[in-house]
Amino acid sequence: MADRMAGKVAVVTGGAGGIGAATAELFVREGAAVTIVDPAADAVERAMAAIDSSGARVLGIVADLSQEAEAERTVRETVAKFGRIDSLVTAAGVRLYGPVTEATPESWQWIIGVNLLGAAFCAKFAIPEMAKHGGGTIVNVSSTNAINGRAGMAQYDATKAALLALTRSLACDHGHQGIRVNAVCPGFTITPFHIRRKAEADGISYEEAQAILREAPSHNVLGRGADSMEIAKSILFLASDDSSNVTGATLMVDGGTGMVSTIGFTSGT
């Protein structure tokens, strides 16, 4: 076992699937105790069992973090079990498709609540616990499309852009407490969400959809989608002492999507 998170306690929101689940798994492998937070109880149970069936180093919490009280409960229960919090990873997120002309007040409230307020609420209660022990780290999971424009995802991309501003402000506000705050911006990542969506759209099996997505070219420099663990390793870098002099930063983990125009771009040309 490696030890980049040895003795640390981390809270990973959205920790029952995709990038969040990969991050929780990697953190435990690197020596951390981890709280997995997700609104789906069955998903939390599966994720916990996959990482540590004994429950000694993994706590599962079912919570809707768009509600401030649920974020406070998450922090309280984590401290009750593990005694402290050293790292917060906000990987929870939801998507809405369509232009802003089709958005409603309810859809805005929902996506802002999950994607932005959930991260802010968790930070609000985790930061004082980190400060008690001399500092900590926060890694907000944003998106390459927080910076790079596209059609049909106005609400999602707006919330992910707001996360970057939140990251910078938190870094400024809490650096004197030894708390570093950074963001990662993944590009297209082959998660169970995308695989299920592909399978349902094409009427094929999960396994078939997974194979297609892994082989499909992507409009980035590397010409492929990322694996969730690739994103998790970038999060580990920012959460660990390997990045001890990094704060307020945005790390693009998007296969080079952000540095090229997708119009007419073909990897390798």
| CATH level 3 topology | Rossmann fold
Mean pLDDT: 92
The number of helices is: 8
How big is the Rg? 18 Å
Low-confidence stretches: none
Distance between the termini: 41 Å
The 3D shape can be described as globular
What is the chains' assembly state? Answer: single chain
CATH superfamily: NAD(P)-binding Rossmann-like Domain
CATH C-level class:
Alpha Beta
Question: How many structurally independent domains?
Answer: 1
Portion of residues within helices? 40-55%
Q: In the CATH classification, which architecture applies?
A: 3-Layer(aba) Sandwich
Placed side by side, the strands forming the largest sheet appear as 3-2-1-4-5-6-9
Biggest sheet, open or closed, and with what strands and sense? 7 strands, parallel
Got a strand count?
9
Strand percentage: 15-25%
Topology pattern, helix = H, strand = E: EHEHEHEHEHEEHHEHE
Structural class: alpha/beta
Note down, in words, how this protein is organized.
This protein is an alpha/beta fold. It has one domain (9-187, 225-254): NAD(P)-binding Rossmann-like Domain (Rossmann fold), CATH 3.40.50.720. It is 45% helix and 16% strand. The chain has 8 helices and 9 strands. It has helices at 18-29, 41-51, 68-82, 105-132, 154-174, 192-202, 206-215, 228-239, and strands spanning 9-13, 33-38, 58-62, 87-90, 136-141, 179-186, 189-190, 226-227, 250-253. It has a 7-stranded parallel beta sheet, sandwiched between helices. The chain has a two-stranded parallel ribbon with strand order 7-8. β2 (33-38), α2 (41-51) and β3 form a beta-alpha-beta unit. α1 packs across α8 and α6 crosses α7 (206-215). The longest helix has 28 residues, at 105-132. The protein is globular, with a radius of gyration of 18 Å.
